[in-house]
Amino acid sequence: MVCNFKSLRVSIAIIETAADYFSDTKRIMIVPVIYFAFGLSVFIMWIYGILCISSIGTITGGNYNLQTKDVNRDEGTNWMIALMVFGMIWIGSFIVAMNEFVVICSAASWYFSRKDVADKDGIPGDSDIWKGMWWSWRYNCGSLALGSFILSLFWIIRGTFEYIG
C-alpha cells in the first residue's frame, strides 16, 4: 500500500475527474440510446435482407406432415449470405466505433474547456456532444469504417479458428 501510494492518488484523481465529467454532462447518456436505435433499425433492415437472400433457390419437397420445404441454394447464394453476415458484423462494429468516438470527443472537449466560468447553461465546463456526432459523420466516417472493417476481419478470422480448434 505504501509503495503504490502515488499510483493510488493518480487512480483516485482519475475517478474524481470522471465523476465530475458525468455530473457536468448528463446528456452523454442519450448518445448510446441514439446509436442503439440506429443499430436496431439497421438490424431490422438486415433481417429483411437476409430473409430475402436466403429464400433464393429452388424449392424441393420436404416433410408434408410438418408442412416444410427444402430450399436448395447455389454457391453464389451461400456467398451472398456469408457477405451479409460479415457486413452485419462490420456495421455493428462501425456503430460501436461511432458511439465511442462521440463519447471521446465529448470527454476531450469537456476536459480542455474552462471550468472557472459557467456557460449559458450554468454548468462550468463545456462538453459538445453534437459536435462529436457531426465530426464522426463528416470528417472521420472513413477512418472509423476502415478501423471497423479491420476489426471485423480479425474477429471473423479469430472466430473461425476458435470454431476449428
Tally the structural domains.
Answer: 1
What distance lies between the first and last C-alpha atoms, to the nearest angstrom?
Answer: 43 Å
Mean pLDDT: 87
The number of E-state strands comes to 2
The rough form would be described as elongated
> Could you tell me the strand content as a percent range?
under 5%
Helix and strand run = HHEEHHH
The description of the largest β-sheet is: 2 strands, antiparallel
- Rg, Cα atoms, Å: 24 Å
Structural class: mainly alpha
Query: If helices are DSSP runs of H or I spanning 4 or more residues, what is the number of helices?
Result: 5
Unreliable spans are none
- Main-sheet strand order equals 1-2
Proportion of helical residues: over 70%
Task: Describe this structure as you would to a colleague.
With 165 residues, the protein is mainly alpha-helical. The protein has one domain. The protein has helices spanning 5-24, 30-54, 75-111, 129-138, 141-164; strands at residues 58-60, 70-72. Helix 2 packs antiparallel against helix 3, helix 3 packs across helix 4 and helix 3 (75-111) packs across helix 5.
Brief descriptors of the model:
165 residues; two-stranded antiparallel ribbon; 5 helices; elongated
At a glance:
The protein has 165 residues and is mostly helical.
